[in-house]
Amino acid sequence: MVTQIVPFILLVLAQATPNASWRLLTKTGFNESTYSVRHLSMHYSRVFLSISVKGNDSPTLIETQWQVSHFPMTTVIFPHRNIHANGAHSDCTLLQQAHWSQVDGLSRLWVMDIGWPDSRCRPRLFVFDLIRNNEELLRIDCGQHIDVKDTQSLVVRFGPKAKSSKLERHIYFILGHGPHILTYDILEQTWKNRSLKSHKYESMQQSFPIKPIDFTFGLQGELIVADKDGGIYSSLDSLQWEDNSELTSSSLKSHIQVTRLGTLLGNGRSMIMDSLGTLYYVIPKFGAVVRCVQLANITAEGNEIIYMTSKNLQQIFFGNNGAVWVLSDRVLKTQQMCFPGMLYNDVF
């Protein structure tokens, strides 16, 4: 099996110490100037990385382990090299560019392949069975609903799990150019495009469309949306479903009504909420990670910056112990980091 080393760094925020980092060191195959990390997903000790590689001629989905006590940490191409295009952008039977991945309640890895802007290959979802030796189960053509030219701002997330079965039924997509959220029903294998509307402010009676750039889900299954103007909104209704419900795609309303929660410090990305209802998000322009404890009447004072760096922050996620981690798309040095109230001299 082919192995490669991919350099990147993860920093723990909830337990911020100089040694609380996870780095893959540069070795043969990739170096710091040839790659960037798009997305990370986890399944117990397994970690799946969607990466972009300069030259567009290498596999873009790799697997490693979380956490190990020795370096460098080797990685393997997932599930194997032969499924990747490796530069063959006209062969639409192969995985072109992994953009996002997530593991569902049945231990299936869902992978979003966005293709290339100048390629005839349309965006697709790949599904792999992690229990049965990473066997490919399904391919879903998304081209009728997601244009390859609209994938640069694409955000993908599973919807809330059902309370009883703890399984996901819907996958949600925003394309970043219109006031809509796209829904794929895993059970029915159907698509529905729903508009997002808000009164914007309490004094307004008329609903206005909002243009989302990122979203997540709250503790009650409500949709939480950040828009391009720095506002944050929450749906009035929960999007969580029940196993015994008669919910169908045709029964969903054509729009989702959201209410304004307040203002973020900028264009929030990679929003995520912990089990206590605390919201975390990234402001890529400033390299900042921000925490909001109270999601009501949010003002500047309600946004707490807990980490800053000069490099691009790609994603926030939770470790198995509940700690908050942030993913950078490249290796960081100590002088590029700033923890409020702390000064470190160690080099990662």
Major sheet: size, sense and barrel closure? 9 strands, mixed
Flag low-confidence runs.
1-9, 14-22, 24-28, 334-348
Shape: globular
Overall number of domains: 3
Radius of gyration: 20 Å
The average pLDDT value, as a whole number, equals 81
**Helical residues, percent:** under 10%
Q: In percent, how much strand structure appears in the residues?
A: 35-45%
Structure in a nutshell:
The protein is built from no helices and 27 strands. With 348 residues, it is mainly β. Strands 12, 13, 14, 15, 16, 17, 18, 19 and 20 form a nine-stranded mixed beta sheet that branches. Strands 1-7-6-5-4 form a five-stranded antiparallel beta sheet, with no helix packed on it. The chain has a five-stranded antiparallel beta sheet with strand order 21-22-23-24-27, with no helix packed on it.
Features:
348 residues, mainly beta, N-terminal domain of TfIIb, 3 domains, 9-stranded mixed sheet, 5-stranded antiparallel sheet, 27 strands, 0% helix, globular, disordered C terminus
